[in-house]
């Protein structure tokens, strides 16, 4: 796998394994809690307050789940905008958007700005429009609507495909100290 042209960078593999592990741990713990509550109904009075899609309490989701509101809007105005919600256990840092922001503004990018751009991102996509019966460009805005007790960040720079992303991590802060807050 490592030598093939379709090989995934090592850091991305580790990140994918982490996501897989957290997802399945969350499912297994939830299943154990559900089975335990069915065996001992008087002991378990815990209800799910974070997820509307399941009546099962999700332990890891309750600790590190991030709610996102996603709005898709056709730039031509020909289709109705759609709004949906989703949850994620990991926040992807938005290097592409941050690099564009750096090039347009200044050469230094504080961590708080990268985090902010990652919590509210905007991208252009193509989607089917029922009114025009054609693929149209939509602007998708994905905004974090709640923050977890434990924030898990996906920091892999390899998928961005260049050293520019690593340079973000190599820079110092405004006072010359470490880039990440301590």
Automatic annotation (TrEMBL):
Residues 14-181 form the PAN2 UCH domain. It comes from the Eukaryota. InterPro entries: PAN2-PAN3_catalytic_subunit, PAN2_UCH_dom. One of its GO terms (biological process) is nuclear-transcribed mRNA poly(A) tail shortening. GO terms for cellular component: P-body; PAN complex. GO terms for molecular function: poly(A)-specific ribonuclease activity. PANTHER family: DEADENYLATION COMPLEX CATALYTIC SUBUNIT PAN2, PAN2-PAN3 DEADENYLATION COMPLEX CATALYTIC SUBUNIT PAN2. This is PAN2 UCH domain-containing protein.
């Amino acid at each position: 796998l490592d030598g093939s042209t379709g090989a995934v960078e090592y850091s991305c593999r580790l990140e994918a394994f982490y996501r897989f592990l957290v997802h399945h741990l969350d499912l297994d713990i939830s299943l154990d809690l559900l089975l335990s509550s069915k065996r001992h109904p008087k002991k378990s009075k815990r209800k799910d307050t974070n997820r509307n899609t399941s009546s099962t309490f999700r332990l890891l989701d309750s600790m590190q789940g991030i709610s996102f509101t996603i709005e898709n809007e056709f730039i031509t105005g020909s289709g109705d905008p759609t709004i949906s919600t989703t949850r994620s256990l990991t926040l992807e840092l938005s290097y592409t958007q941050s690099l564009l922001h750096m090039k347009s503004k200044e050469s230094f990018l504080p961590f708080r700005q990268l985090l902010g751009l990652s919590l509210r991102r905007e991208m252009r996509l193509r989607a089917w429009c029922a009114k025009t019966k054609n693929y149209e460009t939509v602007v998708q805005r994905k905004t974090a609507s709640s923050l977890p007790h434990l924030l898990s960040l996906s920091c892999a720079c390899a998928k961005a495909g260049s050293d520019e992303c690593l340079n973000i991590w190599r820079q110092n802060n405004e006072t010359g100290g470490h880039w990440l807050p301590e």
